[in-house]
Amino acid sequence: xxxxxxxxxxxxxxxxxxxxxxxxxxxxxxxxxxxxxxxxxxxxxxxxxxxxxxxxxxxxxxxxxxxxxxxxxxxxxxxxxxxxxxxxxxxxxxxxxxxxxxxxxxxxxxxxxxxxxxxxxxxxxxxxxxxxxxxxxxxxxxxxxxxxxxxxxxxxxxxxxxxxxxxxxxxxxxxxxxxxxxxxxxxxxxxxxxxxxxxxxxxxxxxxxxxxxxxxxxxxxxxxxxxxxxxxxxxxxxxxxxxxxxxxxxxxxxxxxxxxxxxxxxxxxxxxxxxxxxxxxxxxxxxxxxxxxxxxxxxxxxxxxxxxxxxxxxxxxxxxx
Length: 321
Known about the structure:
Blueprint: H1 2-20, E1 21-32, E2 35-44, E3 49-53, H2 65-69, E4 77-82, H3 87-92, H4 101-118, E5 124-129, H5 131-142, E6 147-153, H6 159-177, H7 180-186, H8 196-209, H9 219-241, H10 245-248, E7 251-252, E8 256-261, H11 269-278, E9 280-281, E10 284-289, H12 296-299, H13 301-320
Parallel strand pairs: 3-4, 3-5, 5-6, 6-8, 7-9, 8-10
Antiparallel strand pairs: 1-2, 2-4
């Protein structure tokens, strides 16, 4: 009898622990926007949700989630999502017809609603990275009542201006260095991008500027990838980069946190900081990492997680007390 009681107690304790903490990712398929879309979640099911919107578009973060969420899982239920035409979602089904910016924004809204229903929550924390900030800003603008806060990593603010600043800088450096090949290739780049070759030359010389030149053996593979990407995403991307949030989104009605790399030229750090300075919101905070580039979420993952836990989660709780 005693052994039976101990066994029952152990089973109950195990069940409770398994219900409240996910040490391995749980994959789930949800009906979003008329197709099956995949999420992965880890952490404490009773804790607040933090949903990450990956960049790209078309670049899953699920395989890299351990790099920036191990500490977060002790305080949140951390959710990753493979957007349509990406990762596990693409493996399940493709999208018939064009992918518009409006479709992606509606997917995001439906997903947030579904997560809140699934886990019986009223609100969640939303984190966007690069392209993901386009979708995140849309949510923060249209549905701030569903968000505890919005966290923007390497935010897309005025990307047409950002891309032009990058090309102009690279042209100046090429001229000063007498690099005629770089000058010639950059002179063909159109802003906004008109083809995958515009993207290729811009990113090729940006990587060179960052001390990470593309190896000749990788050139063909990269061009093939960008061509396939542009066939799907370039119209959607160009619609997104036509926006200027300084003019179009001067106020957000929920707390906002910016995480910016001081060396980010892809989503230019100066543009992002200038927008933060004029953004009208009930609460805002800027985290600037002077020695980080565009991938600040991964490059500064330990510091980022600490700031999310201490400044965002605990900071907001303290302000409410």
